[in-house]
Amino acid sequence: MLVILLYSFLKYCDKCFYWLIFIFIQYHWKQPALLSLTHTSVLICTYLDLDFNNSKILPNISDLFSTIFTMLLYCHIFSRNCEANDLATAFNNRGQIRYFRVDFTEAVEDYTCAIRAQGEFEIPYYNRGLVHYRLGFYEEAKKDFEQTLNLNPDFEEAKVSLRQTLLDQQHKETRGY
Which regions are annotated as TPR repeats (predicted)? Predict the structure, then answer.
């Protein structure tokens, strides 16, 4: 019921006021700094009367996501309630958006900020390793995947990624690149 009322109310709010309400809701309910990417995308598409499954709107939505996450990051950083895990999650999520937009340098910067905010959070190490791997920086990728496994030895995707990185690194060396 609350969601229906909130949706009805937001339909009549202008965008600026909408984002202020969005931030208020996040702080009032003491939720993590950011909603998941899926929840955020559904919320935005619903608010803008867009079809979430329509691929033509995704480039515009990703720009909007980046703006939203940046705004929430700054609000959260300057808030006295800023917790390391919330900040790390926010930077990691924004890094994911930048990764999907093929802004690899910015994605690596966000993952690095997430790691600085909370060094025991394995996901940004893994994500940064994926970017390094994709760029062919196998040594950096290897270090990130190893650190991921140091923090979480049961992280299967990191094990697979580390194995593939070592194979590709060896293949690159044998071919003389």
Answer: 122-155
Binned at pLDDT 50, 70 and 90, residue 116 comes out as very high
Range of the structural domain that residue 41 is part of: 36-174
Query: Per-residue pLDDT tens for 146-155?
Result: 999 999 999 9
Contacts of 118 (CB under 8 A, 6+ apart): 84, 85, 87, 88
CA end-to-end span of the chain, whole Å? 61
Position 110, amino acid: D
- For the chain, the domain total comes to 1
- Measured CA to CA, the distance from residue 111 to residue 96 in angstroms comes to 9
- 101 pLDDT exceeds 80? yes
Sequence-separated (6 or more) residues with CB below 8 Å from residue 145: 125, 126, 129, 158, 161, 162, 165
In terms of C-beta density within 10 A (0-12 exposed, 13-18 middle, 19 or more buried), how is residue 167 classed?
Answer: exposed
pLDDT tens for each residue of 46-80? 545 445 455 455 555 555 655 655 555 555 555 54
Neighbour tally for 141: CB within 10 Å: 25
Q: Which amino acid is at 14?
A: D
* Neighbouring C-beta atoms of residue 132, cutoff 10 Å: 22
Give dist(CA 108, CA 126) in Å, integer: 11
